[in-house]
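your task:
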Amino acid sequence: MQGSKAALRYAKAIFSLAKDKEVTKEVNDDMVLIRETIDGTGDLRTFLKSPVIKDSIKKNALLEIFKDVNGITSGMFDLLMENNRLEILSQVAAKYMFLYDQMNNVQVAKVTTAIPLTPALETKIQQKVKELTGNEAKIENIIDESIIGGFILRVGDIQYNGSVQAQLNNLKREFKNNTYVSKI
Protein backbone atom coordinates (compact mmCIF):
# COMPACT_ATOMS: atom_id res chain seq x y z
CA MET A 1 0.00 0.00 0.00
CA GLN A 2 1.55 3.26 -1.13
CA GLY A 3 2.26 5.69 1.71
CA SER A 4 1.79 3.04 4.39
CA LYS A 5 5.19 3.55 6.04
CA ALA A 6 4.80 7.32 5.92
CA ALA A 7 1.28 7.01 7.38
CA LEU A 8 2.64 4.97 10.28
CA ARG A 9 5.35 7.55 10.99
CA TYR A 10 2.81 10.39 11.03
CA ALA A 11 0.42 8.34 13.19
CA LYS A 12 3.18 7.58 15.70
CA ALA A 13 4.12 11.24 15.94
CA ILE A 14 0.51 12.33 16.42
CA PHE A 15 -0.10 9.53 18.91
CA SER A 16 2.96 10.55 20.91
CA LEU A 17 1.79 14.17 21.00
CA ALA A 18 -1.75 13.16 21.97
CA LYS A 19 -0.34 10.92 24.71
CA ASP A 20 1.76 13.79 26.09
CA LYS A 21 -1.31 16.05 26.16
CA GLU A 22 -3.49 13.19 27.54
CA VAL A 23 -6.04 13.42 24.71
CA THR A 24 -5.50 10.06 22.99
CA LYS A 25 -9.20 9.15 23.25
CA GLU A 26 -10.42 12.45 21.78
CA VAL A 27 -7.93 12.23 18.91
CA ASN A 28 -8.91 8.58 18.33
CA ASP A 29 -12.56 9.63 18.07
CA ASP A 30 -11.48 12.23 15.48
CA MET A 31 -9.53 9.59 13.56
CA VAL A 32 -12.53 7.24 13.51
CA LEU A 33 -14.67 10.07 12.12
CA ILE A 34 -12.02 10.99 9.51
CA ARG A 35 -11.55 7.38 8.41
CA GLU A 36 -15.27 6.69 8.12
CA THR A 37 -15.91 9.95 6.27
CA ILE A 38 -13.10 9.54 3.74
CA ASP A 39 -13.69 5.84 3.14
CA GLY A 40 -17.45 6.34 2.91
CA THR A 41 -17.25 9.25 0.48
CA GLY A 42 -15.63 8.55 -2.85
CA ASP A 43 -15.77 12.22 -3.78
CA LEU A 44 -13.71 13.27 -0.73
CA ARG A 45 -11.13 10.56 -1.40
CA THR A 46 -10.84 11.70 -5.03
CA PHE A 47 -10.67 15.34 -3.92
CA LEU A 48 -7.77 14.61 -1.55
CA LYS A 49 -5.85 12.65 -4.19
CA SER A 50 -6.34 15.21 -6.97
CA PRO A 51 -3.06 16.83 -8.07
CA VAL A 52 -5.02 19.67 -9.68
CA ILE A 53 -6.49 21.02 -6.44
CA LYS A 54 -4.14 23.08 -4.28
CA ASP A 55 -3.27 21.67 -0.87
CA SER A 56 -4.42 24.89 0.82
CA ILE A 57 -7.91 24.40 -0.64
CA LYS A 58 -7.88 20.76 0.50
CA LYS A 59 -6.85 21.79 4.01
CA ASN A 60 -9.55 24.47 4.22
CA ALA A 61 -12.14 21.94 3.08
CA LEU A 62 -10.96 19.46 5.73
CA LEU A 63 -11.15 22.14 8.42
CA GLU A 64 -14.69 22.95 7.29
CA ILE A 65 -15.78 19.29 7.17
CA PHE A 66 -14.14 18.42 10.49
CA LYS A 67 -14.90 21.63 12.44
CA ASP A 68 -15.08 20.13 15.91
CA VAL A 69 -11.87 18.10 15.93
CA ASN A 70 -9.16 18.35 18.55
CA GLY A 71 -6.34 20.86 17.97
CA ILE A 72 -3.85 18.04 17.47
CA THR A 73 -6.02 16.60 14.70
CA SER A 74 -6.35 19.95 12.92
CA GLY A 75 -2.59 20.41 13.35
CA MET A 76 -2.17 17.11 11.53
CA PHE A 77 -3.93 18.65 8.51
CA ASP A 78 -1.28 21.42 8.50
CA LEU A 79 1.56 18.94 8.82
CA LEU A 80 0.28 16.74 6.01
CA MET A 81 -0.31 19.79 3.81
CA GLU A 82 3.22 21.13 4.39
CA ASN A 83 4.66 17.77 3.33
CA ASN A 84 2.29 17.26 0.36
CA ARG A 85 0.80 14.17 2.01
CA LEU A 86 -2.91 14.99 2.40
CA GLU A 87 -3.79 11.99 0.21
CA ILE A 88 -2.65 9.59 2.99
CA LEU A 89 -4.94 11.14 5.62
CA SER A 90 -7.21 8.08 5.78
CA GLN A 91 -4.19 5.78 6.19
CA VAL A 92 -2.78 7.97 8.97
CA ALA A 93 -6.16 7.80 10.74
CA ALA A 94 -6.22 4.00 10.41
CA LYS A 95 -2.67 3.65 11.77
CA TYR A 96 -3.49 5.96 14.69
CA MET A 97 -6.57 3.87 15.50
CA PHE A 98 -4.40 0.74 15.44
CA LEU A 99 -1.87 2.32 17.83
CA TYR A 100 -4.69 3.43 20.14
CA ASP A 101 -6.21 -0.06 20.19
CA GLN A 102 -2.79 -1.56 20.81
CA MET A 103 -2.21 0.78 23.78
CA ASN A 104 -5.57 -0.22 25.26
CA ASN A 105 -5.08 -3.97 24.57
CA VAL A 106 -8.05 -4.03 22.21
CA GLN A 107 -7.97 -6.64 19.47
CA VAL A 108 -9.65 -6.17 16.13
CA ALA A 109 -11.33 -9.22 14.66
CA LYS A 110 -11.80 -9.00 10.89
CA VAL A 111 -14.76 -11.14 9.93
CA THR A 112 -15.44 -11.86 6.26
CA THR A 113 -19.00 -12.96 5.54
CA ALA A 114 -21.21 -13.33 2.48
CA ILE A 115 -23.90 -11.12 4.07
CA PRO A 116 -23.78 -8.33 6.69
CA LEU A 117 -23.52 -9.54 10.29
CA THR A 118 -26.65 -9.71 12.40
CA PRO A 119 -26.47 -9.22 16.19
CA ALA A 120 -26.93 -12.98 16.67
CA LEU A 121 -24.02 -13.75 14.31
CA GLU A 122 -21.91 -11.11 16.01
CA THR A 123 -22.50 -12.83 19.37
CA LYS A 124 -21.47 -16.22 17.93
CA ILE A 125 -18.34 -14.72 16.39
CA GLN A 126 -17.47 -12.96 19.65
CA GLN A 127 -17.71 -16.39 21.35
CA LYS A 128 -15.40 -17.90 18.72
CA VAL A 129 -12.91 -15.06 19.22
CA LYS A 130 -12.98 -15.64 22.97
CA GLU A 131 -12.49 -19.39 22.40
CA LEU A 132 -9.50 -18.81 20.10
CA THR A 133 -7.77 -15.94 21.91
CA GLY A 134 -9.19 -15.79 25.41
CA ASN A 135 -10.18 -12.13 24.92
CA GLU A 136 -12.97 -10.16 23.33
CA ALA A 137 -12.37 -8.00 20.27
CA LYS A 138 -13.89 -5.24 18.18
CA ILE A 139 -15.51 -6.81 15.15
CA GLU A 140 -14.87 -5.39 11.70
CA ASN A 141 -17.17 -6.91 9.07
CA ILE A 142 -15.96 -7.40 5.48
CA ILE A 143 -18.53 -8.61 2.97
CA ASP A 144 -17.34 -11.00 0.26
CA GLU A 145 -20.06 -12.96 -1.55
CA SER A 146 -17.51 -15.36 -3.07
CA ILE A 147 -17.21 -17.27 0.23
CA ILE A 148 -20.84 -18.38 -0.36
CA GLY A 149 -21.67 -18.76 3.36
CA GLY A 150 -20.12 -19.14 6.80
CA PHE A 151 -17.32 -16.79 7.80
CA ILE A 152 -13.57 -16.24 7.85
CA LEU A 153 -12.23 -14.85 11.12
CA ARG A 154 -8.85 -13.12 11.48
CA VAL A 155 -7.59 -11.96 14.87
CA GLY A 156 -3.95 -10.98 14.90
CA ASP A 157 -1.99 -14.00 13.62
CA ILE A 158 -4.90 -16.42 14.06
CA GLN A 159 -7.21 -17.29 11.18
CA TYR A 160 -10.29 -19.50 11.35
CA ASN A 161 -11.91 -20.34 8.02
CA GLY A 162 -15.45 -21.62 8.44
CA SER A 163 -16.62 -20.58 4.98
CA VAL A 164 -18.62 -22.79 2.63
CA GLN A 165 -16.04 -22.06 -0.09
CA ALA A 166 -13.25 -23.51 2.10
CA GLN A 167 -15.33 -26.61 2.83
CA LEU A 168 -16.00 -27.10 -0.90
CA ASN A 169 -12.28 -26.75 -1.63
CA ASN A 170 -11.49 -29.36 1.06
CA LEU A 171 -14.01 -31.78 -0.48
CA LYS A 172 -12.53 -31.19 -3.91
CA ARG A 173 -9.04 -32.00 -2.56
CA GLU A 174 -10.33 -35.15 -0.85
CA PHE A 175 -11.99 -36.35 -4.06
CA LYS A 176 -8.78 -35.82 -6.02
CA ASN A 177 -6.80 -37.83 -3.46
CA ASN A 178 -9.37 -40.65 -3.20
CA THR A 179 -8.25 -43.48 -5.49
CA TYR A 180 -11.80 -44.84 -5.97
CA VAL A 181 -13.39 -41.52 -6.91
CA SER A 182 -10.57 -40.43 -9.21
CA LYS A 183 -11.06 -43.57 -11.38
CA ILE A 184 -14.74 -42.88 -11.95
